Automatic annotation (TrEMBL):
Pathway: Cofactor biosynthesis; adenosylcobalamin biosynthesis
GO terms (BP aspect): cobalamin biosynthetic process; methylation
Alphabetized GO MF terms: protein methyltransferase activity
Keywords: Cobalamin biosynthesis, Methyltransferase, S-adenosyl-L-methionine, Transferase
Protein name per Swiss-Prot or TrEMBL: Precorrin-6Y C5,15-methyltransferase (Decarboxylating)
Organism listed in the record: Actinacidiphila yanglinensis
Gene3D superfamilies, per the entry: Cobalt-precorrin-4 Transmethylase, Domain 1, Methyltransferase, Cobalt-precorrin-4 Transmethylase, Domain 2, Vaccinia Virus protein VP39
């Protein structure tokens, strides 16, 4: 963090510009030695606001510390779009300067305006940002009957949203494009279904309101782990649905946590980890490049394009990865040093879960269980299937699962 003894005032401004600002915000802008902002926001300042105007460089994030340091000790204001702490510059400023150095004067966000116009309770409306991020993340938020607002990156976003909805079986969803919310040129620029969407030129300042409707023949994906196996493109290297649900329960993802999925296969464990919360992150390590490409495609289709796929063999490929909160080993258990590398990488309280169907790997897991404790379980799933004119159980290969929490204390202080 850089030191800035003088508070930096962050002023939210809307499409209604200077006219829409309360007096406190206007005074903060008039009294500043300099105002930093995006070119569009700076253009909203009237001539009477005769301060130095400093446009943010691009890319923005790396330039922020240097620019703020250059103005340290001077009266500085930062112009932000709408509510600065809602998908805005506020996050970066708080990270760089610390929240106590900021004086924040928010304006209604685009989502506040959108919900006001639509009559949607904000707390029941999911928000997905396509600003600087792939629109594919929208796929993880699709549930029949749910209301979403997509923050657009520009005029092309509504068409991309419609295409994604059609592709994921949500073509009957209703879309409305709301432009220039709160400004004189506010309008509903388009209203229709994703299936019937016709691209039309529009204003880059827009949000897309979506009422999700799943097509009757589309695969239904629930909100918890254990998606149907058909949700994945795979070559058989897939932790099947029932075992996957148990595995995710043992991994116990929490918001913001990072998973290593070692031996990614089809990526299902990492993908379902990330789908539990938008802030969950995962790295999957897969030695087979065809499977690695398939993992990336599955992640994109299921709404977690941020999954990091490392093509390489563990344990070597684990070197340099950020420290995980949990590790899943779905492949490569017999590779020399793999389990040790995973266990050593975990912080105290970190979880390790390993699955296997082979006796050789099972012996390794039994040894770990003796050494570290935890849970060693055998999962047997049988599916009812036709036996002639009758029905019988078809037993899948039993899966042995070891899960353990790394104890606190110095290295070697575990129960050996
Ligand atoms: C049973 S699959 C895992 C299935 C996966 N959990 C899923 O649900 O899609 C095991 C995978 O581990 C990979 N693998 C085996 N040894 C490995 C190693 N040392 N490093 C990286 N990947 C490995 C294999 O190529 C295979 O794709």
């Amino acid at each position: 963090m850089i030191s800035a003894p003088t508070p930096v005032t962050v002023v939210g401004i809307g499409a209604d510009g200077w006219d829409g600002l309360p007096e406190e915000s206007r005074a903060a802008l008039r009294d500043a030695d300099a105002v930093i902002g995006g070119p569009r926001q700076l253009d909203l300042l009237p001539p009477e606001c005769a301060v130095a105007r400093v446009p943010w460089p691009s890319p923005l994030r790396p330039a922020v510390p240097g620019l703020l340091a250059a103005y340290a000790g001077r009266r500085l204001a930062v112009l932000a779009s709408g509510d600065p702490f809602f998908h805005g510059i506020g996050r970066t400023l708080a990270e760089v300067l610390g929240p106590d150095t900021l004086r924040v004067l928010p304006h209604p966000s685009s989502v506040a305006y959108a919900c006001a116009r639509l009559g949607w309770p904000v707390e029941d409306t999911a928000v997905i940002s396509a600003v600087g991020r792939p629109v594919a993340a929208l796929a993880a938020a699709l549930h029949h009957g749910r209301r979403l607002v997509v923050l657009s990156a520009g005029a092309a976003t509504p068409g991309e949203v419609a295409a994604l909805l059609r592709d994921r079986g949500y073509g009957p969803s209703r879309l409305r494009v709301l432009e220039q919310l709160g400004g004189a040129r506010e309008r509903v620029a388009a209203d229709g279904t994703a299936d019937g969407w016709a691209p039309a030129p529009g204003d880059p300042l827009n949000v897309v309101a979506v009422e999700c409707r799943r097509a009757p023949d589309a695969l239904r994906l629930g909100a918890v782990p254990g998606l149907p196996d058909e949700a994945y493109d795979h070559d058989g290297q897939l932790t099947k649905r029932h075992v996957r649900a148990v595995t995710l329960a043992a991994l116990a993802p929490a918001p913001g946590e990072l998973l290593w999925d070692v031996g990614g296969g089809s990526g299902a464990i990492a993908i379902e980890w990330m789908r539990t919360h938008p802030s969950c992150r995962a790295v999957t390590v897969e030695r087979d490049p065809v499977r690695a490409a398939r993992i990336a495609a599955n992640a994109e289709r299921l709404g977690v394009p941020g999954l990091r796929v490392v093509t390489g063999a563990a344990p070597a490929a684990l070197a340099g990865l950020p420290s995980p909160d949990a590790v899943f080993v779905g492949g490569g258990l017999t590779a020399a040093g793999l389990l040790d590398a995973c266990w050593d990488a975990l912080p105290a309280g970190g979880r390790l879960v390993a699955n296997t169907v082979t006796l050789e790997s099972e012996a390794l897991l039994a040894a770990r269980y003796r050494r570290h404790g935890g849970d060693l379980v055998r999962l047997g799933v049988a599916h009812a299937a036709p036996v002639g004119a009758f029905t019988g159980w078809r037993q899948a290969m039993p899966v042995t699962q070891w899960s353990a929490v790394k104890p606190a204390g110095p290295p070697g202080a575990d129960q050996t």
